Amino acid sequence: MNVDGNPTRTIWPATDGISVEIIDQTLLPHRYEIATLRKVDDAAHAIKAMLVRGAPLIGATAAYGIWLAMLADTSNAGLERAYAQLFATRPTAVNLRWALDRAKEALDPLSPNDRTDRARTLAAEICDEDVGINHAIGQAALPLIEKIAAKKPAGEPVNILTHCNAGWLATVDWGTATSPIYQAHDAGIPVHVWVDETRPRNQGFNLTAWELLNHGVPHTVIVDNAGGHLMQHGQVDLVFVGTDRTTASGDVCNKIGTYLKALAAHDNNVPFYVCLPSPTIDWTVHNGVNEIPIEERSGEEVTHIAGLDENGNVSTIQIPPAGSPAANPAFDVTPAKYVTGLVTERGICDASAEGLSELFPDRS
Ligand code: MRU
User: N or C: which end of the chain has fewer CB within 10 A?
Assistant: First the structure.
């Protein structure tokens, strides 16, 4: 998507041929800066410290991390070490394991001399595939928006609620949940997005709002607790969210708070769609609530908040009393029964084992 009118991806190989560049997402929305990854340690740090985040982008960064590792050491031990180091960065998004397994499978049979080039081309392939997949997700979900738009008085927007950032910043480009929104907007269909703040790290305010503003998509930022009220009052036509791991039976793990939005949507008959690239499906897991590892992050993300102060400087403040302990589960699981449909690059299916195996007979 465009940044200041320039087509931009979230990750790309640098022109020096030995490093990778990313948008440092910890600085958005108040500063736009590019960071350089030169070693596998830099790639691991970028994922762990969330300079890059979002399931597909975590996978793409891990693939480039393997390339950076191979630039330094192409031995079997070097490959094993890089795999283990990158795998340990974040536990929930399954795209990380998917990308690392794909790299290992491709590089293991090669002689060490051939590994570096293959690691680089593979990372580029994973990135290009991600862009194609996300565009296809947008195409698959566009009719959902068109159908609602056709029933509205001319010019009245389709109101879509989204949680966290499943936008282009969470992927290589397009985003998953935002791909149909961008495509509808670009096609001249009036859309308006309710952007959940997404405490504690505020990916909605910091990233989704920044993206939509840059692309000129009408939107309104809301606190996480507002969604249910808006749904009760007919102000949400559709919910689109992303996912970090979806089980073979259609349970959806996504940013903390997604489950509550799904419950509210269910109670108010608001369609709740999950947009996902197929590498986000974990075919080995069937019960999301019991089997998906949920990342526990620092309590400081809950107790402290950063933003622009009155002098235009980014500053961090503490909210609750210093002595109160904080818990910070970063994801939750929405059982398949609350999901209206899964939007994939192959089309839309029921959130169920049957629905997924119909779309992916080759994988189930
Ligand atoms: O902790 P994050 O910011 O990596 O979590 C991201 C999300 O939960 C997104 O909504 C999800 O990854 C879908 S990304 C297309």
Answer: C
